[in-house]
Design goal:
This protein is about 50% helix and about 0% strand. The protein is mainly α. The chain has a domain of about 35 residues. Helix 2 crosses helix 3. Pfam families: RHH_1. InterPro entries: CopG, Ribbon_hlx_hlx.
Length: about 60
Protein backbone atom coordinates (compact mmCIF):
# COMPACT_ATOMS: atom_id res chain seq x y z
CA UNK A 1 0.00 0.00 0.00
CA UNK A 2 1.29 3.47 -0.87
CA UNK A 3 1.73 6.07 1.81
CA UNK A 4 -0.02 9.46 1.49
CA UNK A 5 3.01 11.18 -0.04
CA UNK A 6 3.60 8.42 -2.60
CA UNK A 7 -0.07 8.57 -3.64
CA UNK A 8 0.23 12.31 -4.20
CA UNK A 9 -2.33 13.38 -1.60
CA UNK A 10 0.01 14.27 1.25
CA UNK A 11 0.64 17.82 2.45
CA UNK A 12 3.65 18.23 0.11
CA UNK A 13 1.81 17.15 -3.07
CA UNK A 14 1.92 19.82 -5.78
CA UNK A 15 0.73 17.75 -8.71
CA UNK A 16 -1.20 14.55 -9.23
CA UNK A 17 -0.51 11.88 -11.84
CA UNK A 18 -2.98 11.58 -14.73
CA UNK A 19 -2.99 8.94 -17.44
CA UNK A 20 -4.02 10.19 -20.89
CA UNK A 21 -4.53 8.36 -24.18
CA UNK A 22 -3.97 10.20 -27.45
CA UNK A 23 -3.54 9.34 -31.08
CA UNK A 24 0.03 8.95 -32.39
CA UNK A 25 -0.12 12.17 -34.46
CA UNK A 26 -1.06 14.26 -31.41
CA UNK A 27 1.63 12.56 -29.30
CA UNK A 28 4.30 13.34 -31.90
CA UNK A 29 3.14 16.96 -32.08
CA UNK A 30 3.26 17.34 -28.28
CA UNK A 31 6.71 15.74 -28.15
CA UNK A 32 7.97 18.13 -30.85
CA UNK A 33 6.48 21.15 -29.06
CA UNK A 34 8.02 20.04 -25.76
CA UNK A 35 11.40 19.54 -27.39
CA UNK A 36 11.23 22.97 -29.07
CA UNK A 37 10.27 24.60 -25.76
CA UNK A 38 12.97 22.64 -23.85
CA UNK A 39 10.54 21.08 -21.38
CA UNK A 40 9.29 17.58 -20.50
CA UNK A 41 6.23 16.29 -22.37
CA UNK A 42 4.19 16.25 -19.14
CA UNK A 43 5.02 19.92 -18.56
CA UNK A 44 4.01 20.80 -22.13
CA UNK A 45 0.70 18.96 -21.78
CA UNK A 46 0.01 20.79 -18.51
CA UNK A 47 0.88 24.14 -20.14
CA UNK A 48 -1.42 23.51 -23.13
CA UNK A 49 -4.23 22.36 -20.85
CA UNK A 50 -3.90 25.37 -18.53
CA UNK A 51 -3.94 27.78 -21.49
CA UNK A 52 -7.14 26.16 -22.83
CA UNK A 53 -8.77 26.20 -19.39
CA UNK A 54 -7.94 29.91 -18.93
CA UNK A 55 -9.09 30.82 -22.44
CA UNK A 56 -12.41 29.05 -21.84
CA UNK A 57 -13.11 30.40 -18.35
CA UNK A 58 -12.36 27.29 -16.29
CA UNK A 59 -9.32 28.88 -14.62
CA UNK A 60 -8.90 32.56 -13.73
CA UNK A 61 -6.84 34.72 -16.06
CA UNK A 62 -3.40 35.49 -14.59
CA UNK A 63 -2.59 39.09 -13.74
CA UNK A 64 -6.11 40.28 -14.50
CA UNK A 65 -5.49 40.17 -18.24
Amino acid sequence: MLNRHARGDGPMAKTLPVSVRMDPETKKAVEAAARDDDRPVSSMIERILKLWLRDNGYLPKEGGL
